[in-house]
Design brief:
Blueprint (H helix, E strand, L loop, with lengths): L1 E10 L7 H12 L1 E14 L2 E7 L2 H10 L5 E6 L5 H12 L4 E3 L14 H10 L5 E3 L3 H8 L6 H13 L4 E5 L7 E8 L2 E8 L8 H14 L4 H17 L2 E3 L2 E3 L2
Parallel strand pairs: 1-2, 1-4, 4-5, 5-6, 6-7
Antiparallel strand pairs: 2-3, 7-8, 8-9, 10-11
Length: 252
Amino acid sequence: MSRAFVVSIGTSHPWNIAGVGLDARVACEYGVRNLTVLTGTTAQDAAGLHLKHTVPVRMVRAQLEALPRDDIGALRIGALFDEENVREVARYVEQSGVAVVDPVFSATLGGSFSNDRTVLAFRENLLQSRVVLTPNAKEAARLTMAEVQTEEQMIAAAEQLRSMGPRAVLLKGADLQMREVVDVLVVEQGVKIYRQERLPGSMRGAGCTLAMALACELAAGRDVVAAVEAARAYVRRKIEARIMLGSLQVAF
């Protein structure tokens, strides 16, 4: 078991197929000690997002201040519902170690988490040098205000995002209409393209799973490229072993 903690900062999902509940399961499989800060709660099921609640910024701040100050190996940041919480979490990132930031602006099955003000606050505050950013194509398009549909556009968007401050950007292309699944990693040394055969169907929570796995790998001391490759392999195994939960394919 790794001595370092991974702090999961994000929201709940009643089925624990996304958000901090899923993070706890991934951390357990990795043998990593997991701490949690809740920024919002949701009512979601196979039909989509029904209701969300934002945890007041005062409570988010109190949770962050209650965390231990030692042995934090990495942060994993998911959905943040308003600009106040974005800025509060960003202040915590500034005084912490590496942070994997998954910019979850909407629920996979429909329903918005973030308005334009929240996205702007995210862009202005959370794209820091400590951050490894893991957007999907839609999230990258919203952050860059540019179309992201092709491999060339993915590369351009990932490079643009990295120029805005993050240590690294992993742009995920699973949702794009491509024959293969293409992911683009941009680090200081350059661009790396990952291609995989597209499996039939889709797994809910794959993005959250990847982000938490990446945080666990970084907490164990891996460099970004090695951590990304190990986390992608972990997610691939999860997708291959996915099961049905109601009408959804999930990794349990």
